[in-house]
Specification:
The protein has 193 residues and is an alpha+beta fold. It folds into two domains: 83 residues, no CATH class; 93 residues, Alpha-Beta Plaits (2-Layer Sandwich), CATH 3.30.70. It has six helices and five strands. Strand 1 and strand 2 form a beta hairpin. Helix 5 runs parallel beside helix 6. The longest helix has 27 residues. The radius of gyration is 29 Å and the shape is elongated.
Length: 193
C-alpha cells in the first residue's frame, strides 16, 4: 500500500474514533445511561474533578507545559494534514493542439519516456524523472546515475539538449524547467598489480 493510502486510512480511523467518542459524550450529555465502564457517569459528571484540576496547581511548570504540548500536537496534526492533501506528483499535462482545444498527456508517460531516453544516452546507467507543478507549466526533477567514466558536464548537456528538449517539443510546452541531480554509480575499486 502506498504512503498516501496509509495516510488516508489512518486519518479515517482517527476521524471515526473521534466521531464515536464525541457522539458517546453527546449521548451521555443528552441523558442516555452510559455503561458502567464508561469514563462519565451521567449528564452532570465533569471531565476533570476538582482534585484532578488542582493536583499540580503549586507546580508553576504544569499549565505552560500542558499548553505547549497541546500546541505542538496541533501543529503536528496540521503539518500532517497539509502533507496528505498536497499533491507531490503531476497527474497530467495539458497540451495545446492549436485548434482551440487541448489534449491531455499523462505525466507518467512523459516521465517514463524521459527516463528511457536519458538511460539510452551515453554514460547514464539509470535515470528517474518526476514531473511537478501545474498542468500548463510542469517542472521536471531528474536523477541521473552516471557511469564512472562519464563527465557530469557532458551528461548534463546531453540530457538538456536531448531528452528534455524532445519532451518539451513533443508536449508543445514553451518551457520545461528541470532540476537535475547527478550521481555516480557505485563501483568496486580496481586492483592494481
Amino acid at each position: 500500500m502506498r504512503s498516501g493510502g496509509v495516510n488516508r486510512v489512518l486519518l479515517a480511523l482517527a476521524g471515526l474514533l473521534l466521531l464515536a467518542l464525541g457522539g458517546a459524550v453527546l449521548a451521555v450529555g443528552l441523558g442516555v445511561r452510559p455503561p458502567s465502564w464508561w469514563i462519565h457517569g451521567g449528564p452532570h459528571d465533569v471531565l476533570l474533578s476538582h482534585a484532578e484540576r488542582t493536583r499540580y496547581r503549586a507546580a508553576g511548570w504544569w499549565w505552560p507545559a500542558l499548553l505547549a504540548a497541546l500546541a505542538v500536537l496541533v501543529l503536528l496534526a496540521l503539518w500532517w494534514l497539509t502533507a496528505v492533501l498536497r499533491r507531490h506528483r503531476l497527474a497530467e499535462i495539458r497540451v495545446d493542439t492549436g485548434d482551440g482545444a487541448a489534449a491531455v498527456l499523462r505525466a507518467r508517460a512523459l516521465e517514463s519516456a524521459l527516463a528511457e531516453e536519458a538511460t539510452a544516452g551515453p554514460g547514464v546507467a539509470h535515470a528517474h524523472v518526476l514531473l511537478r507543478g501545474r498542468r500548463t507549466k510542469p517542472r521536471a526533477r531528474a536523477s541521473l546515475r552516471l557511469t564512472p567514466e562519464e563527465a557530469p558536464s557532458t551528461a548534463l548537456t546531453a540530457f538538456t539538449t536531448g531528452p528534455l528538449a524532445h519532451a518539451r517539443e513533443s508536449a508543445g510546452l514553451a518551457a520545461l524547467p528541470a532540476e537535475v541531480r547527478l550521481r555516480a554509480v557505485g563501483h568496486r575499486a580496481e586492483r592494481v598489480m
